[in-house]
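Q: Give me the 3D complex with 5-O-phosphono-beta-D-ribofuranosylamine.
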Amino acid sequence: MSLPRIAVLASGRGSNLQAILDAIASQQLAAHVVGVFSDKPGCAALNRVDEARRWALDAKQLSSRAAFDEALTQAVAATAPDWVVCAGFMRILGDGFVARFADRLLNIHPSLLPKYKGLHTHRRALEAGDSEHGASVHWVIPALDAGEVIAQTRIPILPDDTPETLAARLLPCEHQLLVTVLQRAVSGQLSPPASPRL
Ligand code: GRF
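A: Here is the predicted complex, encoded as structure tokens.
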């Protein structure tokens, strides 16, 4: 039987991607990462897989947002993924991409959604005086960080936390959350939300 195929979109260091790769290597996750796709050709995430599985395109080289979206859609589709995971992908996905993969498209976001969509989530949680922080894995819809939440992880905010200490303490919890959700996904235990997402 062939393994479930996971495509990962990433723009930065790729620690969430690494958590997926490690879970596969240690047989906690029965899946295969079929490709890593990035809008940042030099990013560290790409180097976590062999060259044959890397795809990157600098959006600045293209004439339009739609051109990048189309190229990304074609490249991801060519790997026939069962699941597409945005793991630190810092570009807003186009509607065409979301429509194509909506029933298998997940994102990990470092906040307790619906709080703090977008950037600087750790700082915003501290500024708000929150007593806890966390991360969410959610279905992707065209609106940023707004799709239905599948699962969350929570940590307490400590009195002397800074955005950096909070981010560092949350990161391993994020990794575990993402792997747990993917275990559910690849074993057929994740039902798409009942309501249409587009
Ligand atoms: C993570 O905090 C993720 O939740 C957010 O961006 C960060 C990416 O980290 N979307 P990494 O590239 O996976 O190390």
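A quick observation: The CA atoms of residues 11 and 90 lie 6 Å apart.
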